[in-house]
């Protein structure tokens, strides 16, 4: 049985649905801080959980006798930068509670890191799996601390912790909230709604990205991988593509010729984006557990526009 925190977020919404399809609806307990009446709440066990409440988390994990914890609840980079102390308390407090629950109940454990775990002094192109990590954002500090804490729980307590460094994730089911890469999701919605988009990230700002189906498969494949083959535990670099705003705009124009792109750079989120890599090297994930991405920018754009045309009708 799997307990998922942050089940109503951009990743959680689709991961819970996918896991229920694979492992059985009753075996995936979705939790979040609120109830939004969505399929995630209705199609299987759902509980209200504030991840900063250690007692409640332990109580739910015991009640359902879970053997796996997928911890997704967190504030993303832009929100965290606006509320750094709230971000520290929620991101790190929630993670410690989830790790402690996993230790006490002997659960397998997954939580994501991010390309945000790298900083301005990290090599920017084909960023290595093992390299300098001096992030200059609270989110990055949370992600590096999280990577180290998850490694510690593995070495010190034998908790089977696993994780990946996600790039920007693009999806059409649940919208992201408070991220820096969210422009790459908004642009598709606006292209369909208005035929134009004003990007808050400037031209030439390359960032790693991935379509949600590849992200979900990565989580499942890593969690099902043979532990003995894992030289790394947490924070595997994974990516599917790297592009700048003008490149995704050009790809959209192939399908919506009148699409217009303009720029109104947001200094706060541009500063965050500028501190991140241009592209990261996913070789370790490919070698240790067979990571592979199916969607590139062209294939993702076809699917995103197709699905959003239906969703936004
Ligand atoms: C964010 N979407 O923008 C998240 C992610 C790599 C980006 O961490 O904060």
From TrEMBL:
Residues 2-238 form the NAD-dependent epimerase/dehydratase domain. Signal peptide: none annotated. One of its GO terms (biological process) is L-threonine catabolic process. GO terms for molecular function: L-threonine 3-dehydrogenase activity. Pfam families: Epimerase. Belongs to the NAD(P)-dependent epimerase/dehydratase family. This is UDP-glucose 4-epimerase. It comes from Heyndrickxia shackletonii.
């Amino acid at each position: 049985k799997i307990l998922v925190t942050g089940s109503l977020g951009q990743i959680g919404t689709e991961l819970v649905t996918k896991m229920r399809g694979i492992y059985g609806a009753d075996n995936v307990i979705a939790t979040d801080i609120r109830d939004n009446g969505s399929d995630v709440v209705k199609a299987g066990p759902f509980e209200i959980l504030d991840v900063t409440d250690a007692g409640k988390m332990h109580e739910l994990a015991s009640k359902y006798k879970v053997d796996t914890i997928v911890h997704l609840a967190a504030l993303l980079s832009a929100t965290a930068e606006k509320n750094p102390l709230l971000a520290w308390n929620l991101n790190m407090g929630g993670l410690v509670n989830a790790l402690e629950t996993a230790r006490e109940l002997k659960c397998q454990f997954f939580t994501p890191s991010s390309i945000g775990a790298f900083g301005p002094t990290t090599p920017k192109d084909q960023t290595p799996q093992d390299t300098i990590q001096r992030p200059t954002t609270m989110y990055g500090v949370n992600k590096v601390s999280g990577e180290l804490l998850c490694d510690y729980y593995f070495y010190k307590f034998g908790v089977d912790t696993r994780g990946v460094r996600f790039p920007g994730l693009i999806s059409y089911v649940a919208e992201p909230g408070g991220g820096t890469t969210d422009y790459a999701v908004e642009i598709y919605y606006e292209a369909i709604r208005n035929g134009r988009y004003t990007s808050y990230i400037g031209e030439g700002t390359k960032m790693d990205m991935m379509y949600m189906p590849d992200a979900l498969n990565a989580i499942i494949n890593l969690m099902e991988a043979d532990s003995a083959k894992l030289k790394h535990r947490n924070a595997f670099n994974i990516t599917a593509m790297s592009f700048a705003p003008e490149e995704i705009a050009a790809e959209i124009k192939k399908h919506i010729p009148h699409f217009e792109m303009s720029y109104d750079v947001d200094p706060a989120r541009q500063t965050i984006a500028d501190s991140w890599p241009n592209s990261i090297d996913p070789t370790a994930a490919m070698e240790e557990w067979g990571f592979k991405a199916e969607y590139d920018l062209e294939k993702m754009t076809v699917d995103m526009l197709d699905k959003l045309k239906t969703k936004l009708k």
